[in-house]
Amino acid sequence: MKDLRWLLALGLTAGFVAPAAAQKATVINYYTSGGESRAISVFAKEYNKRGGQWVNEPAVGPPAEQSLALSRIAGGDPPTAMQWSVGAAMKELADKGVLADLDSFAKAGDWAKNVPPIIMKNITFNGHVYGAPFDIGGVNYMYYSTKVFDALKMKPPKTWDEFLADAPKIKAAGYIPLAFGGNAQQEDWLFMSLLAGVGGPQVYSQVTNDHDAKVAGSAAVQRVFQVYGALRQYVDAGSPNRKWNDSLSLVETNKAAFMIVGDWASGDFAANHLTFGKDFGCSLAPGSQDAYIMVTDAMAFPASNKPEQVAARAKLVGVVMDPAVQAEFNVYKGSLPAMLNTDVSKLDPCAQLGYKVMLKGPTHQLPHFFLAFSPNTLGEINDVLAEYWVNSKMTAADATKKFAAIVARAGK
Asked: Which of 186, 302, 192, 336 is CA-nearest to residue 250?
């Protein structure tokens, strides 16, 4: 995240906003894939149904979305709301006074009771609530092509060692063993799943929750990097800089065996008229079947006392935090509702699988790196993951040492 002092230097205050039509809500978000677009339209339709006017302003990916939102705020023309990943990035905005608090809404909706504690902790800063969470994504899913595995007379792997034993056979048969796009987003998903699946949930928790540098530099984490590096030979030549939904398309078209991706992939399969059990299957990633790596999206609201912005904000919070609306949204998104008092009976089988694991309690709920590290720290981790992925001469020991040093700085 950029240093936000420049926003304040430009004179951002609660009243420094451009005029907006009453009940008109401009919402910046990065929901652009098929399933995501269907999901965000649920909010838009409900907002319009309640007498508002939803103005969608999409951006491709979180970095582009955040850049657009911050530039709008700095220019005195803030959006009504912006999709923001819950965690340190949201805290930075709150600390700079950029966001409106949602305390009255949280109290009225009893969010402390109805939102999981790990999420409430990450939307509450200095005693105030700053985000309206509407989904819980699990990033450690394995989505696979049933047709590829049936053709090979194989079963999806339950461990990474099992995959590494089968991958040469999958590749020899003309399929891509692992659908993957070489960018920070997909590298994070893969590495986090390996950290939980190879290192184990306890190691994962010690690295992320405790920022334990000793564990981050241990033999267990070095083994994670070894497996991460071994996977390079099982992706296709077109993987660099490929978007996640384009990587997933390789599974959807039976060109690749599987992909490590969040549960939002279910929405993409549904948007492409593919059927669970017939065309694709899912499980939690190899070795992490008893862990749920959580990430949460929320609506954040730039501070403003303008009556039209306040009214639009109130209406929009009411929409996104309505349990019935969240239920419908997450049917299309493929994720879990952030409100636990929501009917989940219509969620797809993949989401139901993650829901059961998440409900086992805190020891099974692992934080996405977004929740565990500051934007700067996460950027450093991403640099190491990217460097190691493209540089086959870099050893797992060297990567582990760099990773441990980053975790050590995060713990200070």
From this structure: 186
